[in-house]
Amino acid sequence: MAFGRNKNRRRQDAAQRNEAVKGAVRSKGPGVMKVLALTLATGLLVWGGVELRRWALQSPRFELAAVSFSGLQRASRVELLRLAALTKGQNLWALDVGALERTMLQHPWVKKVEVSRRFPNRVSVAVTEHVPEALAVLGELYVLDEEGEPFKRVTPGDGLDLPLVTGVDREGYVADPDQARQRFQAALEVARAYTKEAVAGKPERLSEVRMEGRDVTLVAASGQEVRLGEGDSEVKLQRLARVRRELGARGLAAEIIHLDNRARPGWVAVKISSPVSERNGSAKQ
């Protein structure tokens, strides 16, 4: 009898297990099917993406046909294409835009560059160049841009006719580039103010901006020195224009014009150029 009871108990346990399995399938089955379906869909998407990428990288539809440039003044498209090793037939999807921009930035005239892919088969390049405003002697002759940055050495083919900024040497620039740039910027501001006055009064072309400590001296193409000292350069340049007009009305030419009187800022002292016959003697004041 005991044997029969054990046998019945085993049958009951098996039936209970079967019911438990069936219940688990009924409750968990939809979730498991969703997971399986999602896994299958993900796999199909990955496979499709791989195949799509392979097709895009091999399709003649995306072969580079043309490159357009904007903003070029000093740099040339030939030079930039050569730097970037950008040629027709390259696949647009395979191009590394960041690498193209970095290589084009190696051109000395290029300040900023933005490369954009224009699907299906074109690339556009927007270039911002340095604007040359002056020259500086830093061991060698360098070009200063509008921010006072010496961005390239002067080469014979540059064809630049710009004022020279002196008073900042290579040692000073290497020791403190930020301070050197600030002095260059100050010199450029004075040069711009001089040019602004030149538009109205047509004075002599500026040849040099000499930075001597805090003092600024301008040298015209004729060799005339205008000693501004320190302070409000625009006001002093307006005064300079009046002095030059007065000298011109009298038929005189100045060798040195002093606008650097610290004690009496409004005063002007002029050293008149000597006639040829008197150059070996004392100059008139």
What is the fold's blueprint, element by element?
Blueprint: H1 2-58, E1 66-70, H2 77-84, H3 97-104, E2 110-118, E3 122-129, E4 132-138, E5 140-145, E6 150-153, E7 164-166, H4 170-175, H5 177-201, E8 206-212, E9 215-220, E10 225-229, H6 233-249, E11 254-258, E12 269-272
Parallel strand pairs: 1-3, 4-7, 7-8, 10-11
Antiparallel strand pairs: 2-3, 4-5, 5-6, 8-9, 9-10, 11-12
Helix pairs in contact: 2-3, 5-6
Number of domains: 3
Secondary-structure element order, N to C: HEHHEEEEEEHHEEEHEE
Helix fraction, binned, reads 40-55%
Number of strands: 12
CATH architecture of the largest domain: 3-Layer(aba) Sandwich
Task: Strand order, main sheet: write it out.
Answer: 6-5-4-7-8-9-10-11-12
Tell me the structural class.
Answer: alpha/beta
Between the first and last Cα atoms, what is the distance in angstroms?
A: 145 Å
Q: Predict the CATH topology of the largest domain.
A: Rossmann fold
CATH class of the largest domain: Alpha Beta
Please describe the biggest sheet, giving its number of strands, its sense, and whether it closes into a barrel.
9 strands, mixed
Q: Write down the overall mean pLDDT.
A: 85
Overall body shape? elongated
Task: List low-pLDDT spans.
Answer: 276-285
What is the H level of CATH, i.e. the homologous superfamily of the largest domain?
Cell division protein FtsQ/DivIB
Oligomeric state of the chains in view: single chain
Number of helices: 6
**Radius of gyration over all CA atoms, rounded:** 39 Å
What portion of the residues fall into strands of 2 or more residues? 15-25%
